[in-house]
Write a structure and sequence with these properties.
The protein has about 325 residues and is α/β, with parallel strands linked by helices. The protein folds into two domains: about 160 residues, Medium-chain alcohol dehydrogenases, catalytic domain (Quinone Oxidoreductase, Chain A, domain 1); about 140 residues, 3-Layer(aba) Sandwich (Rossmann fold), CATH 3.40.50. The chain contains eleven helices and 15 strands. The strands form three sheets. Strands 3, 4, 5, 6, 7, 14 and 15 form a seven-stranded mixed sheet that branches. A six-stranded parallel sheet has the order 10-9-8-11-12-13, sandwiched between helices. A two-stranded antiparallel ribbon has the order 1-2. β1 and β2 form a beta hairpin. It is globular.
């Protein structure tokens, strides 16, 4: 099969197209052997793959290896007694190996793909939407009627968070850097959009503040985000796509009884199969109600995977970036 491998840790340009054998039905997250083999139609591209290409991600496999965490495709084989059958359309999280024509994935991270979504949307479903639900609900304790501010609101996690929050009855604010990203954020359901290059903190406070901030960017926005929170508000830290990891002066948390909460979805949920299934049931409900529709931006063929990573690295991605495998 054709696949992409990282051969050296020099960034996106280090990706190479190779011909390698198809994977066996084995996966380190499924020691019980309950593994699904998927013929891949589309693979999602995310910021972790950019970090992997430089050896900066916490997961550091031996070189060379196939990057990519999530796919959509068709089941080729499933373990005995599974709800999945050959021919089923699925979205699957394999953690590594997604940039390939065939993947092996744990059964508990492989879900039937709703008819409302195409393969490209399915390739952007699990990582972003499970992260969004986990951040908003499991960690952020979102209640209907609350107001949520989303940084990086035009990217994959950002658009997913806006859609899930809106579907759960929240008012949604978005922070973006330009007009194209504002358009995407509004398409994802943002009620109000503020420019990161302007006085967004003052504008958010003038609009009444927010009950929750979802922060996947990091950088210098942390203090101003805390200042936007209403009483008992929560700032949920999702990641640091902006590069730098900010520090918090904890006296600020005393002023309005606010909280800073970490939302490490993968580290927490990958050892909890039932929680993954529960989150997917909630996401499926939001798909059925029309609130969840992954916004897909740029498409690349498999042999241009390096360009896909460069797009994300340059913070030029709008919505989910996808590799078309077949």
């Amino acid at each position: 099969m054709r696949a992409i491998q990282i051969h050296e840790l020099t960034g996106p340009s280090a990706l190479r197209v190779v011909e390698i054998p198809e994977p066996e039905p084995l996966h380190p997250l499924a020691p019980d052997g309950r593994v699904v083999i998927v013929d891949v139609e589309a693979a999602g591209v995310s910021f972790p793959e950019v970090l992997q290409s430089r050896g900066e991600y916490q997961l550091k496999p031996e070189l060379p290896y196939i990057p990519g965490a999530e796919v959509a495709g068709t089941v080729r084989s499933a373990p005995e007694g599974s709800d999945l059958q050959p021919g089923d359309r699925v979205a699957s999280l394999c953690m590594l190996g997604a940039f390939a024509e065939v993947v092996a994935a744990p059964e508990f991270l492989t879900f039937k793909l709703a008819d409302e979504l195409d393969d490209a949307q399915g390739a952007g479903l699990i990582l972003n939407y499970h992260t969004a639900y986990f951040s908003l609900v499991t960690r952020g304790r979102l209640q209907p009627g609350e107001t949520v501010l989303v940084h990086g609101a035009a990217g994959g996690v950002g658009t997913a968070t806006l859609q899930v929050a809106k579907g759960l009855g929240a008012r949604t604010f978005a922070v973006v850097s330009d007009a194209d990203k504002e358009r995407v954020a509004r398409e994802a359901g943002a009620d109000e959009v503020f420019r990161s290059t302007g006085p967004w903190k003052d504008e958010v406070r003038a609009a009444g503040g927010v009950d929750m901030v979802i922060a996947p960017v990091g950088g210098d926005r942390m203090t101003d985000s805390l200042r936007c929170l209403t009483e008992e508000g929560r700032l949920v830290v999702v990641g640091f796509t902006g590069g730098s990891i900010p520090e918090v002066k904890v006296n600020r948390l005393l002023l309005n009884n606010t909280s800073v909460v970490g939302a490490g979805w993968g580290a927490y949920t990958l050892s909890k199969p039932d929680l993954n299934r529960e989150i997917q049931r909630e996401i499926d409900g939001l798909i059925a109600s029309g609130h969840v529709r992954p916004i897909v931006g740029a498409h690349f063929p498999l042999d241009r995977a390096g360009e896909a990573l460069e797009l994300i690295d340059g913070r030029r991605a709008l919505g989910k970036v996808v590799l078309d495998i077949r």
